[in-house]
Design brief:
seven-stranded parallel sheet; alpha/beta; 315 residues; Rossmann fold; 11 helices
Amino acid sequence: MSSGSTGSGGRDLAGKTAVVTGAARGIGAALAEALACRGASVALVGLEPGELSATAERCTRQAQPSAQVRHWVADVTDIERMTVVAAEITAHFGRTDIVVANAGIATGGPFADADPAEFEKVIGVNLVGSAVTARAFLPALATARGYFLQIASLAAMVPAPFITAYCASKAGVEALAHGLRAEVAHQGIDVGVAYLTWTDTDMVRGADGDKVLAELRARQPWPAGKTAPLGPAVERLAAGIASRKAHIYGQAWVRAMQWLPRGLLPSLVARRGSAEVARVAPRLAATAEQRRRPVGPGGLAGSAAAAGKPGPGQR
């Protein structure tokens, strides 16, 4: 997106205001750029002021002259702060048409070895943070008859070993969005859920820094173990937002997984995964301590915020 391309959608979001949480880096930052390319004014919400500012600068370069870009520092689990941010964004831009609940963190490793506090932070940022985001922005979305997109994951459909907190949180946000859709439809609000597999972001690269977990992922059947490029996934998300889709798939093959019986996939994962877990169990035990914090710089920032401490890039 930073190459100056206006994307395949032209200016189909001109006049709209889009809010993206977790916009400091990764999918959130790239999606904010893509929405700016499509003509939207963009409000960035995240925890890392320096990264947010850099994302805002890139979005401004992509935006049309009539569009605006601003960023807000906020912890998505803080309902008081998010309520203030929602009001400020709507007042500044005059309306809020699109909200993307993207903020998320992850930990890796066996459930029994996980720091309980870090496990709770993943659930807090990913699931509670999405609920707080929806609660803060629903009044503005009702006024604009807008669109709320929840970023979920293939992990919501196919829970896997060693990312149990992440899987639980993504299954939760999927259910949250599906339930919310029926509640707000009469207000003119559409609700979508986006599903992505492993996508090339700081978080995934951070996870791949763990040699044991990276090896396990590489042994998954194709294409489940493959890291997908960020650009095409983000363009799919942006196109789905412009069309107010109920379901968006960051990678084409993920759509097919949606139509398989939900009870089948966990059984297959358990059958294949148990042997893999047994094979690497000694190596995991020997390196357990290195997995007690979230992966990637964004994850560290989110974990620090949940603990009430300044994280990387925060002040």
